[in-house]
Amino acid sequence: MVKYALFLGCQIPMRIPSVEIASRRVFERIGLETVDLKGYSCCPEPVISRLLDKTGQLTVSARNLALAEKLGLDIMTLCNGCYETLLEANETLKHESEEMLQTNKILENYGRKYRGLIEVKHVVEVLYEDIGVDKIRECVIKPLKIRVAMHYGCHLYRDLSGNIMRKPEMMKKLTSLTGVEIVDYGLERLCCGYPSMQVDEEFALTHRLLPKIKKMIEAGAEAVVLTCPACTIQFETGQILLRERGVRYDLPCINIMELLALSFGFSSRDLHLELHRGPISRLIKKVEGD
Amino acid sequence: MKNSKMQKVLVYDPEKCTGCRYCEIACAYYHFGTLDFERAYLHVLFDEEKCVFEAIYCHHCDEPLCAAACPSDAISKDKETGWVKINPSICIGCKTCTIVCPLSVPWFNETFHVSMKCDFCDGEPQCARFCSPQAIRVTTREEALKFSEKRYLEASI
Q1: What 3-state class would DSSP assign to A153?
Q2: How far is the C-alpha of B136 from the C-alpha of B36, rounded, in Å?
Q3: At A238, which helix (H) or strand (E)?
Q4: Is B130 close to A47, i.e. CB distance below 8 A?
Q5: How confident is residue A1, by pLDDT bands cut at 50, 70 and 90?
Q6: A194 in helix, strand or coil?
Q7: Count of A–B CB contacts within 8 Å?
Q8: Which of A17, A95, A132, A261 has a CA positioned 20 to 30 A from the CA of residue A179?
Q9: What is the pLDDT of residues B67-126, one digit of tens each?
Q10: Torsion angle of alpha carbons B51, B57, B63, B64, nearest 10°?
Q11: Nearest to A191 among B16, B18, B37 (CB)
């Protein structure tokens, strides 16, 4: 049986808990065993924390990696940001012996040690490579008759092989298994604007989020499929902020794990999709009827 | 520099860029401790109509026009590394470097009244370090030229 240490991160359990619920339902159905990483902390955030304090960032990441290593399991993340942070930290620690030594000196104070024995994987990779499309196709009992646009998220493009489309292509194939029609809108790669919100909110909303949503709607999308919680927050709260600027697009967001869970026959009520901040009820009505 | 082909430079691939501007955020924070696009030493542009990306960044030229035109000799090309830097204590803030640079890379810092530009972060450019898809990365001048020639020649056909 495929078994991973589950790294939930901060945003999913705290801000989009329906993604955690859906993930657990999907894992159980496809036979993916996960062990909760007890005592984990923020990954931490992949850019600002690394800029502020490289040693601090590496130490916090190493501590999280050490927790999984103690269980003898590789880490699986649901969040793109956590994925890049832990992947990068793992690479640095494994290949730069001085960094490993320094980090472990700090971890020693907390009774932890990281040896560099585990791997970091994104849930998309695990589903596609370890479980396989055939197994997932078998679990789809309720094909979803909706048109969706894909948004992969910047950190999903991070890949040690250099092939930036490796994981996005996996995500697209997994999405298509649910029966949805995927529309191409030409701006798939464009950032949602989440990182720019900290620098220039006006720019982030009107020159990143807005062009994407416009193109998605023009292409006939009824929802956007994501895997990153930060992007989901940007799409959902960003649309609320755009209303203040006189622009209204009610495009619902759905995480790929929620989409899979719906196609596996779980109800929106069971998944608590109502916890979304976007106009999810419209999508639910389309999927489940009145 | 003895062997300019081996000089470490930045190279940008618009086919990988997502326009997240983490490169600019990292650059401005590293140099000024602030999150401000205006203070970054490189800029990513996105044409919403044509859906294309481009980046403006210093190429640390073999024969830098900025250094040749600087009236106060504030700009020099390091003999060892090849990186072109402005000495802010010599710069008189005349903006000649900005005018002569084919990409107008140097920008005028209103606070310090001097021109500023990419210093290659002393060997570890933060823009490349924080680019998730590695759209901007560090390579040798020889590799960068090969990549850019292919890219621009293909685009012109």
Answers
A1: coil
A2: 19
A3: helix A229-243
A4: yes
A5: confident
A6: coil
A7: 64
A8: A17
A9: 999 999 999 999 999 999 999 999 999 999 999 999 999 999 999 999 999 999 999 999
A10: 120
A11: B18
